[in-house]
From TrEMBL, chain A:
The keyword NADP does not apply. Keywords: 2Fe-2S, Iron, Iron-sulfur, Metal-binding, Oxidoreductase. Pathway: Alkaloid degradation; nicotine degradation. InterPro entries: 2Fe-2S-bd, 2Fe-2S-bd_dom_sf, 2Fe-2S_ferredoxin-like_sf, 2Fe-2S_ferredoxin-type, 2Fe2S_fd_BS, Beta-grasp_dom_sf, Diverse_Oxidoreductases. Coiled coil: none annotated. It holds the Pfam family Fer2_2. Residues 4-80 form the 2Fe-2S ferredoxin-type domain. This is (2Fe-2S)-binding protein. It comes from Peribacillus glennii. One of its GO terms (molecular function) is oxidoreductase activity.
UniProtKB/TrEMBL annotation, chain B:
Transmembrane segments: none annotated. This is Xanthine dehydrogenase family protein molybdopterin-binding subunit. Coiled coil: none annotated. Residues 29-135 form the Aldehyde oxidase/xanthine dehydrogenase a/b hammerhead domain. It comes from the Bacteria. GO terms for molecular function: iron ion binding; oxidoreductase activity. It holds the Pfam family Ald_Xan_dh_C. It comes from Peribacillus glennii.
Amino acid sequence: MTKVPLPLKVNGSDYYVEIEPHRTLLDVLREDLGFTGTKESCREGECGVCTVSLDNKTINSCLLPAVAARGKEIITVEGIAASEELHPIQKAFVDCHGLQCGFCTPGFIMSAKALLDENENPTEEEIRSYLAGNLCRCTGYNGIVDAVKQAASELRKLNKV
Amino acid sequence: MITKDKEKVQETTVVGKRLNRLDGPDKVTGKFVYGADLDASGILHCKVFRSSIPHGRIKRLDISKALAYPGVRAIMTAKDIPAHIRYGHTLKDEVVFARDYVRYYGEAIAALAADTREIAEKALNLIEIEYEPLPVITDPEEALKPGAPLLHPDWKEYTGNPALIRYDNVCTHASIDLGDVEKAFEEADYVFEDRYTSQMAHQGYLEARAGMAHVEADGTVVITSSTQNPFGLLGNLSEILQLPTSKIRVISTGVGGGFGGKLDLGVEHFVALLARKTGRQVKYLWDREEEMKAAAPREGSVIYVKTGIMKDGTIIARQGKVILDAGAYSGDDTVIASVAALVIRGSYNIPNVKVDSLAVYTNKANCGAYRGPGAPQTYYAIESHLDKIAEKLNFDRVELRKQNALKNGDLGPTGQILESVSMEETITKVVEKIEMDQPRPKYTGRGLSCAIWTSAGGSSCAYVQLNDDGTVVLITGGKEIGTGAITMGVAQIVAEELGLDITDVRLVTGDTHATPFDFGAQGGRTTFNVGNAAQIAAQDVKWQVLQAASEKMNIPLESLELQNKKVYDKDNPTTNISLAEIAADRVWNGGPILGRGSFIIQPTEYDTSTIKGGVYPVFNFPSFHTHAAEVEVDPDTGEVTVTRYVAAQDVGFAINPTGAEGQITGGVVQGIGYALSEEIIYKDGFVLNPNMTDYKMPTIMDVPRIETILVESSSKVGPYGAKGVGEAPIILPAAAIANAVADAIGVHIHDLPITAEKVLKAIKQKQDK
């Protein structure tokens, strides 16, 4: 099949790939660019483990043809921390036992980031509503809700400084 | 909330603390490597060609077109496997590839390796097959009837554990006979009988089964996969590959959820065979459709339960028949049948018990271990049945449970003497917290369920290596699968013994050639057993450190103590030497310090005359549990919403309370899915919902915040008094929720899952009466 040239901007850096046009953003991120922090599970947009940010909106990268990400800003779990330190959301997931096997965690972190970008002080109900597109099979979700609350509180403090 | 047995509280600095898990940072940054992430340059991709019908004879199988497709490197079928090879843990009835017959929809017929995943998928469609369909048996009760067609006409030739009792379509028949149940039913004031059914359910791990393999020059096969049980795979791999176990190396990489589903072979035998055939490295990642059609789910079941009870509420007799729908091969149901038999009596001191527990072949996927195997459906049956009895006799359902609850010194179902029994305490605390007696609005209900559960045994080993900077490496064949058993529990035990911080402990785990034996991440056993082995290894290190310090400081060993990463002279604490200095001296000059621990639980004594055909005859160091659910039922749609959920679990001692609570909250939510929505739906032997859209697992919106109560009734053998924790939380939600739904609508539903359709039908039928 004919390949198409595709420039991509991932986590602030520019990449150039030549790909078959039907390939998903998930596969290109994982297989061509090595961003394996974004996970693969259902490949049909049901589980949320492949969630990434595209121009500040979360998407299931398993459903998006990579060519549709041309010219857009892609952020993956590898790209959300500004430095070597964990991002406050990442730190909160560790502190609050918001993960066990961790396979769903990158997707939850991307969704939580989108939530907190929109709403700096969400209620538990708002958290649960926003994160309903991500499945977790280990935690029972208590720790995830706690993590998002802690992260919200930390980010509010940081934003005030 | 934690309640402690005050006399047994120990002064500790690391165990008992809410410390963060060691693998957290890697997992939140995407750096953690799972089986699904494995890759290598030039790797080949495996796909498996699976049966498209539930039962039939293979008339023609033609792989020539697929093999000729560019980029396909090898295809293997039953022709490539010696005909005598059948594998299995307790019963060797399974085949690598269907030979002449297919027995379930999704059974492996051929496996191929190709240059890319896409080529592999395309080539699958070029394999040609013709079947002669055979009658399909999907109902295990039909399979039991005289004259039912035999799924395995050659069953007598299969080898297995000689304790198994097998006949016709029955691959296991375990029975328990305690006291005299017939006489007790005659003496009972009332006798009640019920029948319950339950569905097939998938573990729902988010990382599909994945792994890869290559072959070394001497023929050693190296397999890396997301297995929960690297050593546990060796026996079956040895049969299939016809290699000694020592020439197979299984390395367990990051596991993206297991819950029992990754204990047995999934990808490993396929990639090993294809790696050997092609001389290349081969990877196989299952897709979701394969997971739902051909993994190792929880079996469906039919459960009959009969109880004899006196006017004063004393339960004197319990009889049960459990029929497990094992699927086309026995899988793990040979063991699960025994476990279900133990559970039928529940957490009550019933003196007369008779159980028959059968695993039966049908034309469905063969079933395996899923967290709390055999228990959720059995507790659902007996605890629903008990609530019905309480209603009919006008007993208080809490008091009825307390009155009959197991107590210290009572006998277990097979005659074991029970110790550190906290049954009543868990009931009292849960009832108080959920406010069982408070008035409730119409269509709101509360329900209760109680259980006894096991801490699985099996051997565990650990090394603790003292590094030259005074930190340690824990080296064990045990495997962290997400529970925190190793990255919290065992690491904390090692740190505690040596006076280190948890972050001073590095981990090397789950590699059959690099780490010492462990029986696998199963049965809530890791913290208990690997923890014990690691504790012994750490104590060994400590002793060697003190001995080295004694020589170096010229002070008798008895006068020394290790604290705060220094060895002190107890009489003169200003005289001390750092652990790092001793460690470095030993690494570079005196022979490095390596601690060694090997552990196995002594078998629990029981009355061997009470159980027949049972390969899991007794609860090891049992734990005790009470759960309560509050639900709201929408009378117009039948939809059930769990509004509150409280679980009390006796964990013996919480090595990490946060970790223990995380096991409970996770297991409960998984159990809520099992209770209300999850089902692999079969029709005429075909799976109707092989995807995550129609297999409905609970999202964060579907469940309330789970409330936990840790009870600590110390066990004699677990590290610091711990009991097994991880498995049990899933065993009670279906029972508690079923009872809450019955409380809300006044009708007991006898079939899991309790879907909106069933609830609405029950409400309508009640209104029509």
